[in-house]
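Notes from the 1:1 (GR / supervisor)

We went over the backlog. Supervisor wanted to see one worked example end to end before approving the batch request, so GR pasted a single chain during the call. The sequence is below; no edits were made to it. Supervisor asked that the structure be written out right there so they could see what the output format looks like.
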Amino acid sequence: MPTTKSTTKRTTKRPVSINSNGTTTLNGYFKVKNGLLSVLERNIRSGVNTLLLGPTGVGKTELVSNIAKKNNLPLTIFDMGTMSDPVMSLIGNHTITMENGVTKSTFAKSRFSEVIQQPGIVLLDELSRANVMANNLLFPCLDFRRELPMEYCFHDTSPIKIHPECVFFATANLGGQYTGTHKIDRALMDRFMLIEVEGLNKLEVKSALEIECPKLNDVKLSKIVDVYDEINKAHEKYTINFNLSMRHLKMIGRLVEDGFTVYDSFYIIAKGIGGKEGLKSIETILKTSK
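Structure output shown during the call:
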C-alpha cells in the first residue's frame, strides 16, 4: 500500500530558513543545499522526471517529502520493492464472482492509476528494487506519451492520461552492497534527470543534528560529529569496512539525549552495522570519545 501525504491548498507558506553557508532549512529541521533545492523545485514546476541517486540514509526520500511540504503539494509514495504483483499495484486487478449461477468479472483500478490523474508529486521509492514488469508499465508514464497502459483491464483498455501537473520523482541505491536491488534498465534511466544527492559537510551535519537533538549541549554535539566524521573518513581510506549515515547519526544523538554516553551510543550502532570485526577497526576512535 502506498504512503500518502497530501494537502489541498497551495497558499500556506511552510517555514524556510536560508543560511549563509549555502544551505536551506526546510520545515524547521531538514537541511538541503541551495543549488539542489533550486534544481528540484524547477523540475517540479517544469514536470521533469527526476531520479535521486545516493547511499542509504542520505535523506533522498525525506528530501522529496520536505520539498512537497514546502510547496504545499500532495505527495504519494509508492514503495517499489514491495510490488510483488506490479500489474495489480500499478493498474488494478480482476475479481471473479458468482451471481445466480452466472460468472461475473469486475475490475478495480489501482491507487496508482487514481493518483496520477491528480496534481502533485508521485515518488517511486527504491526504484532499483522494482520488478522488471513494473519498469515496463512505467515506460509510457515517463516518456512523451504520459499515459498508463490499461491492456490488462478487459472492460476498458483505454490508457489513463496523466495529469499535466503530476510529476514523477524516484530514488535508488546503486551498488553491490545493497541486496535485493537490480541494475536499472538504461531505457528507464533515460526517462529521468539523474541527480546525485551528496552528504552534508561537517558544519552542515552539526547544524542538522543540533536541530534534530536540541537537548544536546555543544560539547556532546561536537564530540558526536567529530567521531562520526572520523569514522566516515576512515571508511573512505578503506581502514573501516562500513560507514555511518545521517540516519545512524540521528539514532546516536537520540541515545545520548536519553542518557547514554557518546561511547556507548556509537558502540551500539557500530556493532549492529559492522559486527565485532568492524568494532575492532574503530576502537581507537571510540576511545577518544569517552
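Supervisor's comment: The radius of gyration is 22 Å.
Batch request approved.
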